[in-house]
Write a structure and sequence with these properties.
about 270 residues; 2 domains; disordered C terminus; single chain; about 0% strand; MetI-like fold
Length: about 270
Amino acid sequence: MNATWIKRLDLAGMAILIASLVLVVIWAFPIFWALLSTATPAETAGGFFRTYANVLFTTDLGRWYLNSIVTSGGVTIIVIAISSACGYAISQIEFTGRRLLWLLILGSFMIPVQALIVNHFFLVYQWGLLNTWLGVILPQLIAPIAAIVYKQFFDAIPREFGEAAFIDGAKHWQIFLKIYLPMNWGVTLALAIIVFIGAWNAFLWPFLAVTKPELMNVTVSIAEIRSYGVSGLAAAMMAGLPVAVIYLLFQRRITDAITMSVGITSDK
């Protein structure tokens, strides 16, 4: 009986392994195909690298990278700052409208950000922020999941920490910055990576908010790249390279953040 079960487990493990390998091949094939397609079969390795060198040095890719770094970094910093403060306030401070604010944050999941694009465009236009970094950043600050994650983790911290600090004369902002936030650096890092990657990959809003080529993000600029006479596919590969590197370096943190957010939203 035991031998039969062991045999079945071995067969099941082999089936899972084969299925995993098939999924890996399916996932990697588009990337492999894109790399091969950026150079013709007759080209040498030097020609292959020249294709990417042309994209890097004969276009404004450096400027587009800078635009993406500034806007994505700005979105990340502001979202983390606002969300952590909001999560702490809802979790630890008693104030009028606290429950209503929490319900509004939870209810915001019912409205996709894309449905607000027209309103965002008119507001940014009226404020004179089209073709500016700030105009790209502001509408991307809607990230309720970050506030929810922070609130749940602050709820898990024993209140004795805050009460002891209050007895010593600490203010709420001191307790938040010196006690609660340092206990959640892992959460902060994971959320920051997720927000940064999302802002870097954003296309629709940066495409609408910026019309000047020199102010475009790298993801939007791919549409303009052919005017430089270089490979559009190679440019697309280089546009996605930074987030691919970030994901490979911090994949465990990213997985943890996704797991936390899915678990929290499913509980709600």
